[in-house]
Amino acid sequence: MPSNSERLNTTDHSRDSAGLTYVYPVISRRAGGVSIGINLNPNNACNWRCVYCQVPDLKRGSAPRIDLNKLEIELRSFLHGLIDGDFMQKHVPPEVRKIHDIALSGNGEPTSAQEFEQVIELIGTIIKDFDALKDLKLVLITNGSLVHRPSVQAGLKRMAQLNGEVWFKLDRALSDERQRVNNTKISLKKIHQHLQIVTSLCPTWLQTCVFQINGEPPSESETHAYLKFIKYLKDEGLPLKGVLLYGIARPSLQPEAPQLSQVSASWLTAYGEKIKALGLTVKLSS
After folding, report:
1. Which of left, alpha, beta for 274 (phi over 0: left; psi -120 to 50: alpha)?
2. For residue 253, what is the domain's CATH number?
3. Angstrom distance (rounded) from CA 127 to CA 120
4. pLDDT tens-digit profile of 167-178?
5. Please, how many CA atoms are within 13 Å of residue 278, restricted to the half-sphere of its CB?
6. 6, 26 contact by CB (below 8 A)
7. Angle at CA 106, nearest 5°, toward 42 and 82?
8. Which pLDDT value is given to residue 254?
9. What's this model's pTM, rounded to 2 decimal places?
10. Do the domain assignments include residue 104?
């Protein structure tokens, strides 16, 4: 656990703040409360390498084997501390002393864990044992690249039964920009196919991070391509809940960090208005 004098804040999402392998608390600026993080990638491995990523020593790869017993012990113990102990009073500012969600995010792509489906089942079992958590939201923050796997789809179906939702990363629409920002060769066609799968299984938000590279925000050709793709999804009738549009709030730990900076609040707001004009809900976080 954090030391008694240590207060959680929105700029520190350290995965080892609780001294545990899989479970960590953060104050989520988008959620407006305490988010209980589940880190299935303690090896700092991901199949993408986003230039704004705050994971130290990030490497290419998948999640290691998950010790489900250890995960259960950590999560049950941590939830007891939040609900019945003095964790909130010691470590959380008064205005955000509520448990908002359990979020699978962590130090890499969580759906790369072979035990993803079992992890969702385990979380569901644990939540059921806490009366105070019966309305708790379960969030998966994902790049969406592995949703073709049957085990991932089974986990998503179970998530939908557990008040779950997916935050599906779509930072850029042009392939060269995706390569530049996310270091992935995944095509927009494949992203479209994966969005069709995800939205059919679990409520889904698009999650888009925008920022400046070398002082320049996303180009007009990129924003045009992004809006065109969003409109296509909307016209197709894909049941998206909306777009989580946000800027970079914490320093990147990737080599490109010196090149990155925030877009202006006015730029972000204007971009959000263009997305709203297509008939989608937009939640904005600077």
Report:
1. alpha
2. 3.20.20.70
3. 11
4. 999 999 999 999
5. 22
6. no
7. 100
8. 94
9. 0.90
10. yes
